[in-house]
TrEMBL record:
Cross-referenced PANTHER family: GLUTAMATE SYNTHASE [NADPH] SMALL CHAIN, GLUTAMATE SYNTHASE [NADPH] SMALL CHAIN-RELATED
Name of this chain's protein: Glutamate synthase (NADPH) small subunit
Domain FAD/NAD(P)-binding: 151-457
InterPro entries, sorted: DPD_II, FAD/NAD-bd_sf, FAD/NAD-binding_dom, GltD-like, Helical_ferredxn
Keywords for the protein's UniProt record, in alphabetical order: 4Fe-4S, Iron, Iron-sulfur, Metal-binding, Oxidoreductase
Organism: Lentibacter algarum
Keyword 4Fe-4S annotated: yes
Amino acid sequence: MAKQPMLKFVSVERDMPEKRAAGARKQDFGEIYQEYAKAKAEEQASRCSQCGVPYCQNHCPLHNNIPDWLNLTATGRLKEAYEVSQATNTFPEICGRICPQDRLCEGNCVIEQSGHGTVTIGAVEKYITDTAWENGWVTPVTPAQERTESVGIIGAGPGGLAAAERLRAQGIQVTVYDRYDRAGGLLTYGIPGFKLEKDVVMRRIDQLEQGGVTMKLNCNIGTDITFGALRGQHDAVIIATGVYKTRDLGGEGAAADGIVNAIDYLTTSNRLSFGDTVPEYESGELNAAGKKVVVIGGGDTAMDCVRTAIRQGAESVKCLYRRDRANMPGSQREVNNAEEEGVIFEWLAAPAGFVGNPVNAVKVQKMRLGAPDVSGRQSPEVIEGADYNEAADLVIKALGFEAEDLPTLWDSPELPVTRWGTVKAEYETGATELEGVYAIGDIVRGASLVVWAIRDGRDCADAILTKFAAVNKIAAE
């Protein structure tokens, strides 16, 4: 009788890949988790219960076939595991590194609910695809035949690149336009190397180019080419710009020097990792070295900022968040990593203003949680008379992002947007009211997760292919 390869959660404990010691890892921007060895990956994958209703899969935006590729990993069939993983996810090695698994697949694992500790889904996913790269199983898209239809994609972030890969696989002529000098969007310039090393992103982009995707970088829509001209050049256009406008912070002294936006700060740091010369870093404007740093916000961007400041050699790093730990939107795993590295969290604390120019302190109001708001979360309320000043030489605003005013930037008032500035589009297809114009990812959803952008990109590509097929059928008749 064959030995049961799965359901070992009752005898095998959850075991994450070894994490580099905090003292060592905060000296550089290398990823903090080591790679699983083959035996360890198989062991951890074998803990999956292969449950009849896979909640991990159901709660993954891409509906990745997680139980199957865990089974294949546990039984040593890694190439097949990669093929199953890649079938639903354009960038599994990236999602394995940066997805908030504690809120998605792992957070809904059946054995986690029964007290045995979730399967380490993200770490196994990363291992599968890293192994695939090492063995040459990951190859550029090779369409069976070239087609004449052309699609222009505005934005080289995860959503745009996912759509590009799926369209190109069917022989569509794809051009991706991006205003930055490197493709990747948030993956390249927004997420620090200690979560996602940049060669992981660059090899995917190189592969897309090898497969025939054209990248037009340093290209600003509305300046270098009009939105109308772009529509004229392509049979369909996908807007995948993301949202990059920082939510502002008012209050006394908010315009003082030394108060900076998170995206500017993170982009500067990531440019350094490519070897770029960045004047704002060399001048100290976007450099935390030797400074008392205060980061305002409680999401994953705030966690990226505090941990970057530690690595830049800040004298101290504090994070202000107006709710408590249990109610913060960021990953608890990231909070734990930050605390290990020396970050201090000031919970139930909100900025009320700033002192000095350049800034030398943040005026802080202590808060308490009151009645739930419309979303069900408890609303923070000010505790009168509990204000204090928090010393700061550098204040980083990580309050989330909003949509830029695309109709104005692109001189395209006909582009339909919501009252929040996001583009009006169908969630299932990305189709807008404009013929041949689609929109996906954060520019439709608002600031969201990379995995949702990938899902949107794939769904939109499929909708465009269906539309082309219908047009071709009519033309043939």
